[in-house]
Amino acid sequence: MTAKAHVQRVVGTGAEEAAPRVGVVGGGQLARMMQEAAIPLGIQLHALVEAADGASGQVIPNSQVGDADDSAAVCALAERVDVLTVEHEHVPDEILAAAGELAPVRPGSHALAYAQDKLLMREKMEELGAPVPRWWRVNSEQEIQAGLAELGGRGVLKTPRDGYDGKGVRIIAEASEARDWLADGGPLLLEEMIPFEFEVAAVLARRPSGEVACWPVVRTVQQQGACFEVVAPAPGVGPELEGQIQDIAVKIAEDLDVVGILAVEMFVGSNGGEASASGAPALQPYVNELAMRPHNSAHWTIEGADTSQFEQHLRAVLDLPLGSTLPLRDWSVMVNVLGSELDDPREAYQQVMEKYPRAKIHMYGKEVKPRRKIGHVTVVGDDLDEALAQSHGAAAMLRGEV
């Protein structure tokens, strides 16, 4: 259906039946925040959720309990909507292909495969000429030991599928450390440890007609494998490096035919070349991970940009014109709330809101568990140090640390 037809459905009769219907597979916080963006646009969101009382089941009226690997449940969702999207990558290709016979799936399985499988992604990045760490497909301890020898004795071992927030990733010095993963069968990914200066993410949206819109490149900080802090725009990234990073992301989106949000996480390290005009070491980005759905590194856009990533994702999958990605203030800082000492972090609202009135709190309706992403805090402003201090202070209170 064309963008024009969707607009007519929204403003024509005003009936709920005429609203554009977007289906999303997954019931986590990303679908929850899609619902927040769908409401003002008059878009009807339908979700396949893991639990009725989960993050999304609590807030999306048109939700159905089911698993992402249940073909019947996914196809039933596809039959009820105009377009189907995902909030995580863990949907089998064959199920997405079957759903695609009933409604457009965006991103399609042909693109999502590269976010699902790290080995497939590494091969594709090299084919596209995108810089990546040195890597090997390994099936045995002997192959791992040979790779480690070329890497000087240490490397990063990853499971190709289903890893996130530090899961499925090990730093190893001996092949025997991979014995349990090898016993599960299938190849593993062994790659170089990049001595990076910092980590960044390039986030963009692309619609089926080819329009692309990029937000500023952001700096990300990981804590025990999970994203902890995001600063937009990325400090230390000048116009030349930002252009290089965004060019890589746009090329990936166009060559893979990504529709919706694409996040490209990268390491930035020295390339060993000549220093820049300022005398600083020349910097080189290396592609680390791809995500083809709204991403933690762009939560700041809810308060910090003209168009949030969640609204933009809905626009993109419906093939509607994309919104402006301009920042609203000089700086945006987002800090994740990873677990809490409090049974319910909302117990700290009085204290947090009194001390940090500029902090924007997003809680996901999740049960508190150690290191679990249960919410985030964003502070925007014109002073980076102040935004950092306030966002970290508010998040610490929600974690029960103050």
UniProtKB/TrEMBL annotation:
Quaternary data: Homodimer.
Function field: Catalyzes the ATP-dependent conversion of 5-aminoimidazole ribonucleotide (AIR) and HCO(3)(-) to N5-carboxyaminoimidazole ribonucleotide (N5-CAIR). Catalyzes the ATP-dependent conversion of 5-aminoimidazole ribonucleotide (AIR) and HCO(3)- to N5-carboxyaminoimidazole ribonucleotide (N5-CAIR).
One GO cellular component, as annotated: cytosol
Protein name: N5-carboxyaminoimidazole ribonucleotide synthase
GO biological process: 'de novo' IMP biosynthetic process
Record-stated family: Belongs to the PurK/PurT family.
Reactions this protein catalyses: 5-amino-1-(5-phospho-beta-D-ribosyl)imidazole + hydrogencarbonate + ATP = 5-carboxyamino-1-(5-phospho-D-ribosyl)imidazole + ADP + phosphate + 2 H(+)
Species assigned in the record: Ancrocorticia populi
